[in-house]
Amino acid sequence: MTHLVCCVSAEEERRVYFSFLILQSNCIMTSKYNIITFLPVNLFEQFQEVANTYFLFLLILQLIPQISSLSWFTTIVPLALVLSITAVKDATDDYFRHKSDNQVNNRQSQVLIRGSLQNEKWMNVRVGDIIKLENNQFVAADLLLLSSTEPHGLCYIETAELDGETNMKVRQSVSVTSELGDPNNLASFDGEVVCEPPNNKLDRFSGTLYWREKKYSLTNQNMLLRGCVLRNTEACYGLVIFAGPDTKLMQNSGRTKFKRTSIDRLMNTLVLWIFGFLVCMGMILAVGNAGWEKEVGSLFQSYLAWDTPVNNFLFSAFLSFWSYVIILNTVVPISLYVSVEVIRLGHSYFINWDQQMFCSQCNTAAEARTTTLNEELGQVEYIFSDKTGTLTQNIMTFNKCSINGQSYGKDTHTTYHMHRLDFTPFNPLADPDFCFYDDKLLESVKVGDSCTHEFFRLLSLCHTVMSEEKSEGELVYKAQSPDEGALVTAARNFGFVFRSRTPGTITTTEMGRTVTYSLLAILDFNNIRKRMSVIVRNPEGRIRLYCKGADTVLLERLHPCNQEVMSITSDHLNEYATDGLRTLALAYRDLSEDEWEAWSESHRFADKATDCREDRLAAAYEEIEQNMMLLGATAIEDKLQEGVPETIAVLSLANIKIWVLTGDKQETAVNIGYSCKMLTDDMTEVFIISGHTVQSVRQELRSVWLCAHCTRLYTAHALEADMEAEFVSTACACKAVICCRVTPLQKAQVVELIKKHKKAVTLAIGDGANDISMIKSAHIGVGISGQEGIQAVLASDYSFSQFRFLQRLLLVHGRWSYLRMCRFLCYFFYKNFAFTMVHFWFGFFCGFSAQTVYDQYFITLFNIVYTSLPVLAMGIFDQDVPDHRSLEYPKLYEPGQLNLLFNKREFFICIAQGIYTSVVLFFVPYAVLSNATQSNGVPLADYQTFAVTTATALVIVVSVQIVLDTGFWTVFNHVFVWGSLGSYFIIMFALHSQTLFRIFPNQFHFVGSAQSTLLQPVVWLTIALATAICIVPVLAFRFLKLDLKPQLSDTVRKHTKTHAWRGTGSVSEGRLGARGGSRRSGYAFAHQEGFGELITSGKNMRLSSLALASFASRHSSKGKIKMFFKK
Fold it and tell me: At what angle do helices 563-578 and 666-675 cross, to 10 degrees?
């Protein structure tokens, strides 16, 4: 049977029909090359780099005999080396992409073919095929769910690959196809699907099913997307709608935004300047050539005529210009870019291998997911952090509670004198992992206090948790949010055990007695209501409404007789807020049969309304949730991750500003700010900006400057375009900034504002899918591999499992990477100018004839053999102070933030030193050898002797210079420095030997020059003199600078060498003291709206033996953004 799918284009308003024989293949291809296309495509991509194209242009020039005085291999060898290294890297990356593609494409899937199920590879699946999925299988393509083994055509999926959420979600087939569970019935299915074109919107699908002369609307709830995993469902069948590249997963796998470091951008600018400098030198020497040919060269025309193409001095100058461009091209180093990539790769491996950033609990190591941003880690000024799961563990524990005006729970200051309660003798169904320390609450339950019993009865009934009893007494709760799970678990341990539910009942075990309640209604939670309620009928027939929600909305709906207990409970809420706990208020209301019947009728009317259904339901809920009786309040602790306060304190000492961007309400964010030491007690005055218009916010924003040491709170209007500058200037003047109730888009907007106005390096860190936009917007994105899936990690540049590792990433690896890269670049430009500028000075003494100073083989090998490995070793291994000193002295991080180690000023200093060295290397040998003679009286003033002397002095000087620049010596440094110096002499003697001259007489013109030159004492004295003149001023300057104006790193290094290490101890690990003030904590409610309706409909009730699905989607409406600042 051929199944047809119709895609309707929104732009074209027409229908296009495809059969499965010609439709899109399900084969995916993320690789870029194959065996045939690799070489041409890769070369084309590499020559899009300006530097590679430039050197290719030089190579072409060198093939013109009238221009080039160098052989073509002096350019092609380093160019080929750079292209080869890059090609090998690209080929390796693409090989792994091919391997991954083959692994996915060859997965097996059961496809319905001619009435029977047959195994097919994923790549052979076509649109229109019907596929059978079994539990824990990946979805092969975007499928329309036709039927399932679960009741009502339901199935459960995990979408971590799509949105980073590890919780399970429910999908349901169209009712008309839900009974097509048998392959024979499915084989006769001949429906037609009209749907939207392929797109990348994961949360939306629009289509229509035409079958049996009827049409049925299709939504995202009917779709199983590629990348999902079927969970807790024995089997289901689906019709392939989109396959391969058309699937939403592949539509979303676009290229990640390419990030460049500030050093990269500066380097590109400097290379352009160097190129301009090269052109200027070429023009100067060309003008010199024109003048020399006109005034002097013309006198030799009778016996030394110009070459055939040259007929006048101007044309000679033109050719001379291009000749000097070729000779002086080494001032633009071809090996610079590949050397930078090798160094960055080494730094990335150091991050991956760092055992101090390895989390043994989750067996996760730090990972550098990019190799291009390592030195940027040493320049971060602003960190934007998520809260839940990043600063906190996203693990909720029932910590305290207030019942009828009595507070229970552990006191932070007396925990060590309290013992953990053992619930086992009292309650065999207790959760052994539950911790509580106040035995007064357990005694209150045991003696039968009615308020306490009603308190825990509410917690066991008013929720949307699902329960599975794997064996007798072994309960597993599946909660939408960890808050709900903590509350239901607390009720379970105190004797009110939630056991099971059906669409119309809730079964509990209360103090050992099984009780079944009739579930009359669930008044669902949303972020506007900030509360949820259930209406139940107990076995005695009494109807009661139980409600839990944020204290700000629930307390105002209480009966007036609750004033006294409400006042006491409010004080308790303030106490809990002081400890940074998340709170809920609990209340109930008794309903008569008449009240219930009347309200039930109005509720049914609102539920069936076709227009404004949500508003009508909200009004109905509001009507019944009045005049309630207060039971008490709960306090849940969202535990901080290990080392968060210490990490924030250390990073603050490094002058890094930390902003927390969270979707939580103001109170929760403020409390976490105190808990993690972002906010301290010396920040006393609270200043709240509560304006709801642009004008009012602007007025209050400006009034902030009248206060000192104040707390600040902003609304969404602060992000308006005409208020950006005021917002940024005010916020950046503060020590700490906390933005509350922000949406993912607003997180990215805040980051972009700082990037735009402050020109500072930003880092964003988060663990959830809602942090992706922030992570991608920042210069550096860090993903926490935590509780909320892997999507943030997949979008990040670096990842690890604990926030505390951030201080080591920045203060150790980041600082070292920046230091190493800066030292590498300074030395690289220095040595290349020292090497190249000798040709410039020589031009004034050779008639501007474009004659080279050095042997052409020396020119070829200088950058790729003689000096490449020592500078790479310094760039990879160098360090100024040990890692523990970097953490002990956070101020060492500031030079990177101020960009002190490599900037335009430092670049010109390096260039000046290189030019000075070239002057010494040319004029000292020139002056000495002009009148020097050998022991037998033969003059030493010949070209070959001068070339060997200058080249040897150059190699020795740059080797001594890198010895001075290297601050940390390893075996590799020693081998590379002394090995490179030794290789120079070995290769030079080999190239100047008689053997090579006899084999290639036209290629090796310096036969015997090395042996005869280096046997002369005057040559070695000349080399020693040139080296001393080059190095002594550098040594003198460094000693004076160290003595008169030492940097912090110099002081720390001196201290490290002269004193034994005495521990860090820089940051106190003690807990910040308690703070005053009345603050409400965030209400502990974070689950998805609409789940109550799903429960009462019965669609999520499980009749199979598989584990229950969990619904932990956290969607909160975040209509406005609030900023909390501390100045």
Answer: 40
Determine if residue 594 is labeled as part of a ligand binding site.
Answer: no
Place of tokens 């604990």: 802
Distance of alpha carbon 448 from alpha carbon 462, whole angstroms: 21
Handedness of CA 518, 521, 527, 529 (dihedral sign): negative
Q: How far is Cα 1049 from Cα 880, in angstroms, rounded to an integer?
A: 7
Q: Does 1016 share its domain with 913?
A: yes
Phi, psi of 37 (to 5 degrees): -90, -10
Active site residue 594: no
Domain boundary among 583, 615, 638: 638
Nearest residue to 989 via CA among 1034, 948, 960, 961? 948
Residue 651, Cβ density class (10 Å: 0-12 exposed, 13-18 middle, ≥19 buried)? buried
Distance of alpha carbon 683 from alpha carbon 533, whole angstroms: 39
662 labeled part of a ligand binding site: yes
Could you tell me if 383 and 483 lie in one domain? no
Which burial class, exposed, middle or buried, applies to 493 when counting CB atoms under 10 A from its CB (0-12, 13-18, 19+)? buried
Question: Phi and psi for 280 in degrees, rounded to 5?
Answer: -60, -45
Cα separation, 387 vs 737, in Å, equals 13
CB-facing half-sphere around the CA of 896: CA atoms within 13 A: 37
Q: Are residues 856 and 785 in the same domain?
A: no
Interval 804-814: pLDDT, tens: 999 999 999 99
- The CATH number of whichever domain residue 452 belongs to comes to 3.40.1110.10
Residue 567 shares a structural domain with residue 616: yes
- Considering the domain architecture, whether residues 613 and 678 belong to the same structural domain is answered as no
Q: Establish whether 852 is an annotated binding residue.
A: no
Work out how many domains the chain is built from and give that number: 5
Q: Residue 138 corresponds to which tokens in the numbers above? A: 């990946």
List the domain range (segments joined by +) for residue 299. 268-332
pLDDT score of 574:
84
Is 771 labelled a binding residue?
Answer: yes
CB of 378 within 8 A of CB of 814? yes
Q: How far apart are CA 418 and CA 405, in angstroms?
A: 22
pLDDT tens, residue by residue, 378-396: 999 999 998 777 888 767 8
Is 741 annotated for ligand binding? yes
In tens, the pLDDT along 62-78 reads 777 777 666 666 667 77
Sheet (strand 531-537) strand order: 406-409, 392-403, 629-640, 582-591, 543-549, 531-537, 513-523, 505-510, 496-502
Shared-domain flag, residues 366 and 407: no
The answer to whether 767 is a known ligand-binding residue is yes
Cβ atoms 524, 1093 nearer than 8 A: yes
Give the chain's radius of gyration (CA, Å): 38
Q: Give the 3-state secondary structure of residue 1105.
A: coil
Helices 482-493 & 450-461, crossing angle to 10 degrees? 140
Residue 688 confidence (pLDDT): 55
Residue 1120 lies in a domain: no
pLDDT at 1122 over 50: no
Q: Which of 142, 163, 386, 880 is catalytic?
A: 386
Residue 587: pLDDT band by 50, 70, 90 thresholds?
very high
CATH number of the domain bearing residue 144: 2.70.150.10
Q: pLDDT value at position 557?
A: 92
Same domain for 986 and 1024, yes or no, is yes
| 947 and 972 part of one domain | yes
Q: Are strands 130-134 and 235-242 parallel, antiparallel or unpaired?
A: antiparallel
Domain boundary among 193, 220, 253: 253
Q: Is 548 annotated as a binding residue?
A: yes
Find out whether 747 is annotated in a ligand binding site.
Answer: yes
Tokens of 613: 């259904």
Give the pLDDT confidence score for residue 411 in this predicted structure: 67
Distance, in Å, from the CA atom of 649 to the CA atom of 651, rounded to the nearest integer, reads: 6
The structure's pTM equals 0.75
Any known ligand binding at 582?
yes
Closest CA to 444 of 435, 436, 453: 453
Q: Is residue 120 part of a domain?
A: no
3-class secondary-structure state, position 115: coil
